[in-house]
Amino acid sequence: MALFRRGKWWWTDFSVNGVRYRMPLDTVDWRVAQSREKEKITQASTGKLAPSSQQFARLAFVEAAERYLESRKVELAPRSVAKERELLRAPGRHFQNTPLHRITAEDLRMYREKRAIEGKATVYINMEVGAIRAF
């Protein structure tokens, strides 16, 4: 558990159950920083505060796919973004509101089998799975 300054702002760095949390406390006052740090530790202990690496994984599949596509607009041409959007449409209907961290390799295998039974070409199925893997 540590309070430290970065520029004028106070930050906290602590671990709960082996998970590290490092975040700004949005204050320049040391006393306010102490109380906010205690609040953050309590939130982390009760599971109400997810580390930043897990926040994306907790999103529903369709929301995560949409965020991923928005971030890709900077890197790709509009036609490429449209292609990725099309590739993620069928997986979005299949996984819908399932959080990303709950999708297992077995779920992906079952999805591939379902698409094969529907008569989709293997190359297209592999492109869909590749688009899922990208985010």
Summary of the model, kept short:
By secondary structure, the chain is of the alpha+beta class. Helix content is 56%, strand content 14%.
Characterization of this structure:
This protein has 135 residues and is of the alpha+beta class. 56% of the residues lie in helices and 14% in strands. The protein has 6 helices and 3 strands. Strands 1-2-3 form a 3-stranded antiparallel β-sheet, covered by helices on one side. A hairpin with a 2-residue loop joins β2 and β3 (19-24). α5 (105-117) runs antiparallel to α6 (122-134). The two termini are 32 Å apart.
The number of distinct β-strands equals 3
Q: Name the strands of the widest sheet in spatial order.
A: 1-2-3
Count of structural domains: 2
Please give the largest β-sheet: 3 strands, antiparallel
Q: Determine the structural class based on helices, strands and strand pairing.
A: alpha+beta
Number of helices: 6
| N to C succession of SSEs | EEEHHHHHH
Overall average pLDDT: 92
- What's the shape? elongated
Helix content: 55-70%
Radius of gyration: 20 Å
- Kindly estimate the percentage of residues that lie in beta strands according to DSSP: 5-15%
Uncertain ranges: none
Question: What topology does this entry show?
Answer:
Blueprint: E1 2-6, E2 9-16, E3 19-24, H1 30-45, H2 52-55, H3 61-72, H4 78-95, H5 105-117, H6 122-134
Antiparallel strand pairs: 1-2, 2-3
Helix pairs in contact: 3-4, 4-6, 5-6
Which features does this protein show?
single chain, 135 residues, alpha+beta, 2 domains, 3-stranded antiparallel beta sheet, 6 helices, 3 strands, 56% helix, 14% strand, elongated
